[in-house]
Amino acid sequence: MESLAIFHAALNRRFLDFIFDEGIAGVLSGQHECDEFERIVELLENSHGYTLKDGNRRRMIAVLLDFLTECGYRRQGRYTADGVNREPAHGSLDSFEGEYNFFSRCIDYAGEYLRGGKPLYDFNGGCVDTWDEFLGNPEFEYARGVLAKKLYEGCRALDRVLVLCYGPGYDICHLQRYSEDVKITAVDYNGAFYEAARAKLLRPDAVQWIHSDKWGGFGSPLPFEDGYFDAAVFSCADPYIAGGHKRFVYEDIYRVLTRHGLMGIITRGYPDSQCGSDKLYQRAALCHDFAESVCEGWQGFYSAKQTRALLGEIGFDIKSLTLNECLWMAAKS
Ligand SMILES: C[S@@+](CC[C@H](N)C(=O)[O-])C[C@H]1O[C@@H](n2cnc3c(N)ncnc32)[C@H](O)[C@@H]1O
């Protein structure tokens, strides 16, 4: 997928430009010993007026530093501008333009957010069109298509499917394409996406829509009895689970699945510098993490290793982890 590589290159370049144009690179490269994270945080608070006391803004600086390291901007404990490739990215973004524009607007706003500005986008209603345009991007759509296919191939019986955090409805669209009979139950923690999701579907009335006042979001129990669903789909929402709730969320999905029921998750893992996968992709994942941090409730990508361990402890049997460790298929044992 050549245009995917062009998109990733353009995104990497966009983030690098921010780091240089915002003057962060200058602050870092002026230092002799920039090893210590706390020292860097203090420097940026003083030089840029960033408010880095809270977890999310602090985490953004850690992501930014990991990105610079991945780009070769850090060598032998020092940050250096030597050898940093700021070549413009060439080629057309084609269908990735919407995704690029979303991240670009987020990165544009990052300086203001780091200085204490309120989140740029939230899920309360005013930003539905923005989310709709972003979430319909070809990268996520491809993954949703593969997920739906794997569910239908992997489940002996697929009668009741839970779509958790249905958002603008793309997950449901893919499932309905595969089967006319499947009974989908859709739940989100607020009703903002209801109309946008319905409008996208061929059979909106075939879905059981759970009113948002029945579920308080991550950390509160799903309003379903034990063992009710043959499968659950959970895409692009894992990084919105606060760390303290993560075990509970997956235990609760486990609870509502029938024995051998399948769970499909789409989420990126936080890039592991040891794992030698595609560098361009790893950097793009860091850009994504940094950029979406300006959205309400974003917690960052979790490490795939930790997620794997957690799902195993809960009792899930991980059947496959594909698409650059983005698509998880796990069965209740
Ligand atoms: C990026 S959207 C993904 C939506 C959809 N699954 C998709 O792939 O298009 C994130 C979803 O997580 C939900 N969400 C965000 N914060 C949440 C929270 N604290 N509790 C429950 N759901 C939350 C949003 O309402 C939204 O549906």
Write a structural description.
The protein has about 325 residues and is an alpha/beta fold. It has two domains: about 1-115, no CATH class; about 130-265 and about 300-330, Rossmann fold. Helix content is about 45%, strand content about 15%. It is built from twelve helices and nine strands. The strands form two sheets. It has a seven-stranded mixed sheet, with helices on both faces. Helix 4 packs antiparallel against helix 11 and helix 7 (about 140-155) crosses helix 8. The longest helix has 20 residues, at about 1-20. It is elongated. The model has no long low-confidence stretch (mean pLDDT about 90). S-adenosylmethionine binds next to helix 8.
List key phrases describing it.
single chain, 333 residues, alpha/beta, Rossmann fold, 2 domains, seven-stranded mixed beta sheet, two-stranded antiparallel ribbon, 9 strands, 45% helix, elongated, binds S-adenosylmethionine
What is this entry, summarized?
By secondary structure, this protein is of the alpha/beta class. The chain is 45% helix and 14% strand. It folds into 2 domains: 2-114, no CATH class; 129-267 and 302-332, Rossmann fold (3-Layer(aba) Sandwich), CATH 3.40.50.
Shape: elongated
Distinct ligand kinds = S-adenosylmethionine
By CATH reckoning, the class of the largest domain would read Alpha Beta
What do the pLDDT scores average to? Answer: 92
Count of domain modules: 2
The unreliable regions are none
Helix content: 40-55%
Biggest sheet, strands in spatial order? 5-4-3-6-7-9-8
What's the gyration radius in Å?
Answer: 20 Å
**Number of helices, counting only DSSP H or I runs of 4 residues or more:** 12
Judged by helices, strands and strand pairing, the structural class is: alpha/beta
